[in-house]
Amino acid sequence: MLTQFTPLSALLGGAFLGFAALLLLIGNGKIAGISGITSKAINPKHAKSWHWSFVLGLIVGPLLLPLSRFELPQNFDSSWLAIIVGGFLVGLGSVIGSGCTSGHGVCGIGRFSKRSIIATITFMFTAVVVVFLRQHFAISL
Amino acid sequence: MPTVIAFIAGLLFSFGLVISQMVNPSKVINFLNITGTWDPSLAFVMLGAIAVFASGFFVLKPNKPLFNSEFDLPSKTNIDKPLIIGAVLFGLGWGITGICPGPALANISGLSPKIWGFICMMLVGMTIANKVKQHK
């Protein structure tokens, strides 16, 4: 599906993400990495109440925004096979690689962490290659 | 108090994902599609987020957090195999679907079965990776 370039809402939304991550850091001393928080929440050895309250906030947040202006997508282009394979790889890879778009891409780069910069370049490059191959060789999944 | 702070941070994070439309996988796929229908929005999302977080991190940084005894920051600094292998696996999944963990969770209330399926498989992947990590 085609989408419009929306630089202003992207910057504004990005600022919210950065502010949320900053609040968690200054308030609790924690990094707002969604994969790290979620994977610890479901791990009995590491689960703490703040992991679950963060996840809860993330889930209920969209319900508090005016629906007329901000709505969640209803149709997803991905096939069920792509969803199953992709979901599994996202979960597996983010925990093995110690982070995802939020932990590495925002907080890590924001701290000028070498590991996070390398990780972000690696997953972005990989994802670009995947999309390129699927576009040009009509690989369906 | 840390539980309340985390809840508010989660809320604000979801607002950011909805406002920036990163909850829409098509926006992500089009960002990654640099030789086709390229939509650079995601770069601006990261720019906004990193600018706010980095300026706060380097300017405000107090000696200790407000509601905790110390900062809990990643201690590793070396580039190791798990970092690269994990990032490649994550990039494969992200490139196939355009969905990553934050947007997946923020989409739950949209009640789309595919998002729920994605999250179930993501949790399976995370559980397996947790087990692998614990054995090392």
UniProtKB/TrEMBL annotation, chain A:
Record's signal peptide: none
Keyword Flavoprotein (UniProt): no
Keywords, sorted A to Z: Cell inner membrane, Cell membrane, Membrane, Transmembrane, Transmembrane helix, Transport
Localization terms from the record: Cell inner membrane
Transmembrane segments: 49-67, 79-96, 116-133
Major location category of this protein: membrane
Membrane topology: Multi-pass membrane protein
Superkingdom in the source lineage: Bacteria
InterPro entries: Sulf_transp_TsuA/YedE
One Pfam entry name: Sulf_transp
Keyword Cell membrane found: yes
Protein family membership: Belongs to the TsuA/YedE (TC 9.B.102) family.
Protein name listed in UniProt: YeeE/YedE family protein
Lineage, uppermost ranks: Bacteria, Pseudomonadati, Pseudomonadota, Gammaproteobacteria, Alteromonadales
TrEMBL record, chain B:
The entry's keywords: Membrane, Transmembrane, Transmembrane helix
Pfam families, per database record: DUF6691 (PF20398)
Top-rank taxon: Bacteria
InterPro entries hit by this protein: DUF6691
Residue intervals passing through the bilayer: 44-62, 83-109, 115-132
Protein name according to UniProt: YeeE/YedE family protein
Biological source species: Shewanella intestini
